[in-house]
From TrEMBL:
UniProt source species: Flavobacterium taihuense
Top-level taxonomic group: Bacteria
One Pfam match: Shikimate_dh_N
InterPro entries xref list: Shikimate_DH-bd_N, Shikimate_DH_fam
The protein's annotated pathway: Metabolic intermediate biosynthesis; chorismate biosynthesis; chorismate from D-erythrose 4-phosphate and phosphoenolpyruvate: step 4/7
UniProt keyword annotations, A-Z: Amino-acid biosynthesis, Aromatic amino acid biosynthesis
Organism lineage string: Bacteria, Pseudomonadati, Bacteroidota, Flavobacteriia, Flavobacteriales
PANTHER family: BIFUNCTIONAL 3-DEHYDROQUINATE DEHYDRATASE_SHIKIMATE DEHYDROGENASE, CHLOROPLASTIC, SHIKIMATE DEHYDROGENASE
Name the record gives this protein: Shikimate dehydrogenase
Domain called Shikimate dehydrogenase substrate binding N-terminal: residue spans: 11-93
Length: 249
């Protein structure tokens, strides 16, 4: 009699009915014959609910973490990987056999692997729109690729400029523009970051971490001026497969 692998996984976040992860892993388990594995959404209104969730689900083997808890989850973990410590954000949690929780970041891996094929020699500097947990993984990946970057936020602060500072000169100096904000995510598909899209050219890459819709207004407006565009689907697939390896090592 063949022993069936039985493991529970899930996604931690808020308002995550739209999530990619549940559908992806459920389909993966079916295709690859992991019949005993399940994946579910754990939608909590605030991070303090995680303590109760952990207590009531002692048989969990791993979690993905999404907006808005990639940074807020850190105090609830027993240990962090070296990369997660440097990045300061976690999107993957492994539940060890001893019941301890170790946090990892696979966002940076997924982003790096999906961006690399697009890069040309003139892609030297990047603008990162947003300063949340996802942007930290992106910045870490850019460091590994030797690409200089600047964060953009709604308010100017240390190591960050505000949107009003972005102009034609900015686009001359920065050849990669990365949207790490949730602006434009379904169902709010008519929204987009407020930047001067007319300064995009064929020498620019516009990368949106959003995957639903497949082409956001941000990407559409950049494409209209010749930019090469990329959404976040491949990044999600790469980071999900990396998480799967972590859970099963």
């Amino acid at each position: 009699m063949i022993e069936v692998l039985r493991k529970r996984f899930g996604l931690l976040g808020r308002n995550i009915n739209y999530s990619f992860s549940k559908g992806y892993f459920t389909e993966k388990f079916g295709k690859e014959h992991f019949e005993g594995c399940t994946y579910e959404n754990f939608d909590i209104p605030e991070i303090n609910y995680f303590t109760e969730l952990r207590k009531n689900n002692t048989d969990l083997n791993g979690l993905n973490v999404t907006i808005p808890y990639k940074e807020a989850i850190l105090p609830f973990l027993d240990k962090l990987s070296k990369n997660a410590t440097e990045i300061g954000a976690v999107n993957t949690i492994k539940f060890t056999k001893k019941g301890r929780l170790k946090g990892y970041n696979t966002d940076y891996y997924g982003f790096k692997k999906s961006l690399e094929p697009l890069l040309q020699t003139h892609h030297k500097k990047a603008l990162i729109l947003g300063t949340g947990g996802a942007s930290k993984g992106v910045a870490f990946a850019l460091d590994q690729l030797d690409i200089t970057y600047t964060f953009v936020s709604r308010e100017a602060k240390q190591n960050c400029i505000d949107y009003s500072r972005i102009n034609a000169t900015t686009f001359d100096n920065y050849q990669i523009i990365i949207n790490c904000t949730p602006v434009g995510t379904s169902p709010n598909v008519d929204l987009f970051p407020l930047i001067p899209y007319e300064f995009f050219t064929e020498k620019h890459i516009a990368y949106d971490l959003i995957y639903n819709p497949a082409e956001t207004q941000f990407l559409s407006k950049a494409k209209a001026h010749g930019a090469q565009i990329k959404n976040g689907l491949d990044m999600l697939i790469f980071q999900a497969e990396k998480a799967w390896k972590i859970w099963n090592k």
